[in-house]
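Quick log. Single chain, no ligands specified.
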Amino acid sequence: MFDIGAVAYLRSEAGEQALGEVAERRLTGASLVSDIASVRAQFGDHAAVLVETVQLRRRAQAKFTDPDRWLFTDEALQQATAAPVAVHRARRLTGARVHDATCSIGSELVALRDCAGQLLGSDLDPVRLAMAAHNAEGVDLCRADALVPVTHDTVVIIDPARRAGGRRRFDPRAYTPALDAVLDVYAGRDLVVKCAPGIDFDELTKMGFTGEIEVTSVGGSVREACLWSPGLTAPGVRRRASMLETGEELTDAQPDDCPVAEAGRWIVDPDGAVVRAGLVRHYAARHGLWQLDPDIAYLSGDELPAGVRGFEVLEQLQFQERRLRSALAARSVGALEILIRGVDIDPDVLRKRMRLRGTERLAVVIARLGSGAASRATAFICRPSR
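-> predicted structure:
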C-alpha cells in the first residue's frame, strides 16, 4: 500500500490537509464502510493510504505521546519501540556517537536526537527511510544493509525484525537480520540490540554474547530485552531490570541475600522485569523482603515497599477448590483477583467455579510451596493494597 509516491503525498501540504479531514471521521463500527466510500469519493486513489495512516496513528496512541504527525506502516508500528523505552535507552547513550542501523520509521532516532553527540540512521527499506525523514526531521539518513557496517567508532543500534507475514519469530537466528550474524559482524564494537522479552538467555550465551541483558517494563508490563555489549555497561553487570514507571533499576551485581520463610503480613508479586531478569532475590534484599519458596517469585514481608502494590494476607489454607470456595463464601467475596505460580490452573475457570455471590473485593494468591513429595499448593486469601 505504501510506496515512495504515497509517502511523498502524505508529507505534502495537500496530504497533510487531507489527513486532517479524514481524521475527523470515526472509521469504526457501522460507519466504517460509508466513511471509506466518502474518503474514496473525495480523494480518489489516495483514500487507502489516508485511511490507513489515520487508523495507525490512533493505534499508535498506546506507544507514543504525540503520534498525530507520524507516518507508519502496520508492521513498522508493531515493531516500533514505545516512546518511554526509547527515551530510557537514549539517556544511557547521552553524548555518544550513535548509528541506528535498522532505523525503520525513526522511533529510536527521535529519542536519540536530543541525547546523542552525533547521530545517523540507516535502513534497507526506502519507504521506511522516507517515513523516518518525516518523523525524525533533521537526522542524517542513508540506505544501507545493517550487516554491512558503514560507520566506525560509533555505538551501533540494531532492532531486528521479529515478525514475518504477521507472525512472530521466536528463534533469534530467524530474526532479520539474524542475531548470530549481528553479533559476529559487530564483534568487538559497542553494540545495542533490541530483542523480544522472552528470548532464551542460554541461547545468547551459546552465541558468545558476554555483555548485559537489560529487561525493561512500563507500567509493570515487560516490553523488551536489550543487549548491551561489554563496553557499554558497568563491570560485573550481566543482567539488569529497569522499571520505568517507578524509575527503579536492579542489577545482578547488587546483594541478593534474602531468607526463605512463611508468609508475613504482605505478599508481593515483583515487577515482570525483575522476574524475567532473574533478580527476584536482589529485589527482596533491597526491600527487606523474603521468599516464600526458593523456586517461586512471590515475596513476603511485614511492611510493604513504598509505591508497590501488595496483597495483605487474611487467611492461608491448603489449596482445594471446595475449601477455597467455602472460605470465600464466608467472607462474602463477590469479585476476586487470582494470582498463580507453580500450579496448572486457569484463573478464569477457577473464578467461575468459586460461585462468587458477595460484595467484598479480595484476591487469592496460589503457589506451590516446597519440593518433591513435600510440595503443596497453598492459597492465600488477601486484600489488595490498591
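The chain has three domains: 4-61, 78-249, 266-384.
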